[in-house]
Amino acid sequence: MSKANKTEKITVPVLPLREVIVFPHMVVPLFVGREKSIRALEECVEKKKELFLVAQKQATTVNPGDKDIFQIGTLGTILQILRLPDNTVKVLIEGKRRAKMLKFMDGETMIEADVEVVTEVSDKNIETEALVRSLKSTFENYVKLNKRIPPEMLMSVNGIEDPSRLGDVIVAHLNLRFEDKQGVLEIIDPGKRLEKLLELMQGEIEILQVERRIRTRVKKQMEKSQKEYYLNEQMQAIQKELGEKDEFKAELLAIEKQIKTKAMSKEAKEKATKELKKLKMMSPMSAEATVVRNYIDWLISLPWGEYTEDSHDQKVAEDILNEDHYGLEDVKERLLEYLAVRTLTENSKGQIICFLGPPGVGKTSLARSISKALGKKFVRASLGGVRDEAEIRGHRRTYVGALPGKIIQSLKKAGSSNPVFLLDEVDKMSMDFRGDPSSALLEVLDPEQNATFGDHYLEVDYDLSKVMFVLTANSLSGVPRPLLDRMEVITISGYTEIEKFNIVKKYLLPKQMEQHGVKPEAMNMDDDAIRNMVRLYTREAGVRNVERVAATVCRKVAKKIVDARIEAAKSKKADKTGVIRVRSEDLEELLGPPRYLPNKLEAKNEVGLTNGLAYTEMGGEMLQIEVSVVPGKGAVKITGKLGDVMQESASTAMSYVRSRAEALGLSPDFYQNIDIHLHVPEGAVPKDGPSAGITMTTAITSALTKIPVKRDVAMTGEVTLRGRVLPIGGLKEKLLAAKIAEIKTVIIPIDNVPDLKKIPSEIKEGMQIIPVSHVDQVLRLALSLEKPEEFLAKAGAIGEVPVALIDKAVKTKTGSTVNKH
Fold first, then answer.
1. Of 269, 372, 734, 739, which is the active-site residue?
2. Lower Cβ count inside 10 Å, N or C end of the chain?
3. 91 forms bridges with which residues in the sheet?
4. Is 332 a catalytic residue?
5. pLDDT (tens digit, 9 = 90+) per residue, 363-394?
6. Is 103 one of the annotated active-site residues of the chain?
7. Which of helix, strand or coil describes residue 356?
8. Which position among 691, 710, 739, 773 bears the catalytic label?
9. pLDDT tens profile 535-569
10. Phi first, then psi: what are they for 299, rounded to 5°?
């Protein structure tokens, strides 16, 4: 097809190109940034040399070598060169002829190469002419399909008769892969090059034809939708003019559109579509249509897969928690740990946290602060008094008034599938013939099950795994064990007097002043007045009552301010009320006589009277236990409205004393001629709990042996028949009650020593805390004995520690001490 090619060898600068192929007869602008390439351009301009334009095999290569570039390239001349401000060069280059690299020379300033120039000569024969005509015809079809190529290019191509030039001009305008273009460049024979181009162009035309068919099909679908929309609009306009608009059909169309656009689960979408078909066949006035319509409304109004983006800024979260709540360091640390975990993993399942504590300690407000700190929506559902399982799981869809349960209702209200969900008062649930709601909560609060929570009303699964559930409870006694197993319980103890003082001063008093219209410059309450308001007018673990008392003070001050303004208006003088200062001595005038006087110690040591420490839902309390011995026939009477646990403790204590009768100096049958009456004052108040055993044992022992009990000693702990002292709960609250009552010595079980680390130092300050393991140790410490080390020493208590250690604890009289045995 071709004659022998004439060749010549020259040495020229090399310009490596990234993902660009320059063909002969092609003018292309290039941006050059590499120093060696810029030097090569300058060399060509200065010496009017040609430039060898060759493509790199990998575009990422920074300093290409001999093996990093192709062997076949194009010799070109520089038409225009321009240096840009960013030290790059823009150059306009025209390709002239093909060349093959013989030797690669990488110099210090630029890259050069010995190249062999190939001059192509084509035979004019019938086969070549046929190839040229086929290529032109195919290119014409290609231009018709590809709108990016201007029609003028077709005219230019039709005027080219040279096969070699025709192939090089056409290939420059084809949308080919980089490797295909390099392959065409490397074909020296013009005839073979035209054949390859025909093959590549046919493939591109097929792709363009498929794209065109897809575009046409999409356009027809769009036109059909637009036509239907236009006709529907016209029909509605005509119906409106005629006054015959069908509202029910319009509603059905709106519902159908919502179902299509709503991002529901596949199961929910299928269910909604099925119910809509049923609704279309019903009369709009029928009761069943109302039920179906309400059901569809619930399905499309739920936040299926709608999530708010969590805030992961721990500093902001910590600031919010500190701003909203004083103290509660353990709780805040746990919440910041949760936030840290969410920062590290986005797939952590929703946490279930239960805040346990007395009323008024801030459990509900903590949940609100969590939602604010995490940037989540907040929703609350109260479980107090709930006794119907349908309140949790929803009602069956068998009557008009059926509704989903509190869980689904609250999620609709939140508008998000990952809110902070507060379930308040979980311990106040009950059960009756309508089911057990606490059992229904098991699925809700189980991270392994709640991804497919089934509400009876919805009849489709709903994902609750992203919801952060927060529960609150005053006592765990009312929470079923299986439900408790699914929660992480965080105990919020009662506040100390110092914490209450800071909470009132920093949070509650400013809040009540703002709510009652008392400006900060109009009222000033002394620190002593705040302390006495907390101490003398409230007795609680939380701060709910003290907030009410602060509100009363603000109302009284507000009245004084208004009265002063009225007087000033009557006398036509300026209001000179100034700042109203509330001092400690003003509290009785504002609030009346003190409601609670501090617990005072007995004036002297008493026989049969022991100070016990108890934990109630309202916090810690000092509980005195009295025992009286009277002539009788061995009866034991227990009064004071005690629960089953405390009655068992009294029986255990009595049995232990009888077992130690000989060691205590009592006759073996001492109980046959006496009656023992054990009483806990305030008989109208129910009392129960496993922590009064050693208190009752001490009181019974004192009453029988006529040995007084030390008035400034209080104790807590359960006792066994063998005299072992068992651990108790609520140590902080009990020590706080002892602190308020000015108790100097507190006896606690030895197993509760680790709990002392979490107790604030202001509670332990000035108090002697003595851990014990056996009730004989308690008797030596609590009874007023001349020689405590000799009391029961000969009897040999089971599990007792050496007497010398007890003596050391007894003889320590000053400072805050914890004596470990």
1. 734
2. N
3. 30, 81
4. no
5. 888 888 888 888 889 999 888 878 888 888 88
6. no
7. strand
8. 691
9. 888 877 788 888 999 999 999 999 888 888 888 88
10. -60, -45
